[in-house]
Write a structure and sequence with these properties.
Structural class: alpha/beta
Number of strands: 9
Oligomer: single chain
Strand content: 15-25%
Number of domains: 1
Protein name: Proteasome assembly chaperone 1
Distance between the termini: 48 Å
Strand order of the largest sheet: 1-3-4-5-2-6-9-7-8
Organism: Vanrija albida
Order of helices and strands: HEEHEEEHEEEHEHH
CATH architecture: 3-Layer(aba) Sandwich
Radius of gyration: 24 Å
């Protein structure tokens, strides 16, 4: 058992050395003992490469679509022109599209664990825009609403903003104790860090309710119109169906297709809640 008054610098008692101490709470680690240290993983290498023939891109406003929300926005873009490709190590991680009128659309995939912050810093440094609109997604069944929030027939588009709250029909705040992770969380962390180039710039995170096949396109148009000047360039019908929804990874996160689940003809699809 743990002796609260024993010196941490003293060697362990002989009976501990001669017996199995696996069940001894707090034993086995002393400042004077030498323990092998696990080497730190190498920093993620993020590269942004220009698409051959594409003009230089210096946008004043950027819309960043994360995960399947990024693929959804690419379908809504009227005339996206690839300008940059994004890679984390040897793996592709996204594409930067020029939308015209000084705006750009960035479609990013969620990278491996530990690479999100490096990916965000690379994108921020390469584009250097003053206004940023981030678009991700959330699972309505896993969202904890405020006690006073009125219930709506359809899950709303939610937001987090570093400036004044955007005014748009159907928009609701994304409030604590709910939180965001991954690339969206890395963007928000950068915006709050005084040493980051993202700090002090106008930024808003929109979270679209899943599944996207059930999302009213007018709600997305209203949300983008309230937060970015690139809304007109992202107002084309997306034609997003259940086939395009990603399989669920947790309770309520969407349909698991029957052929992926069992390979037979039974419908084993899950449902968003």
């Amino acid at each position: 058992m743990l002796d609260p008054i024993a010196s941490l610098k003293a060697p362990p008692p002989r009976y501990l050395l001669e017996s199995d101490s696996s069940d001894e709470e707090g034993q086995g680690a002393y400042p004077s003992s030498s323990q092998p240290r696990r080497p730190a993983p190498p920093a993620a290498e993020v590269t942004l490469s220009a698409v051959p023939g594409a003009p230089a891109l210096k946008p004043s406003s950027v819309v960043v679509g994360i995960g399947q929300a990024g693929a959804y926005l690419v379908r809504r873009a009227a005339a996206p022109r690839p300008a940059l490709t994004v890679a984390v190590g040897p793996e592709p991680a996204g594409t930067v599209f020029a939308l015209g009128d000084g705006s750009a659309l960035v479609a990013l995939a969620e990278p491996e664990s530990g690479a999100a912050y490096a990916l965000v810093e690379a994108v921020l440094g390469a584009l250097g825009a003053e206004a940023w609109t981030l678009v991700s997604s959330y699972v309505p069944a896993m969202y904890i609403p405020a006690e006073a929030e009125p219930r709506l027939p359809d899950p709303p588009v939610r937001f987090l903003s570093s400036s004044a709250a955007p005014k748009g029909a159907g928009l609701r705040g994304y409030d604590a104790p709910n939180y965001v992770t991954g690339v969206a969380g890395a963007f928000l962390s950068s915006s709050a860090h005084p040493a980051s180039p993202f700090h002090g710039k106008q930024s808003t995170l929109l979270l679209l309710p899943l599944p996207l096949s059930m999302l009213d396109p007018r709600a997305v148009s209203a949300a983008l119109g309230a937060t970015t000047g690139a809304a007109a360039a992202l107002d084309r019908p997306a034609h997003w169906t259940e086939v395009d929804d990603e399989p669920f990874a947790a309770l309520g996160m969407g349909a698991r297709r029957a052929h992926e689940a069992a390979g037979d003809g039974d419908d084993l699809s899950g449902m968003y809640m």
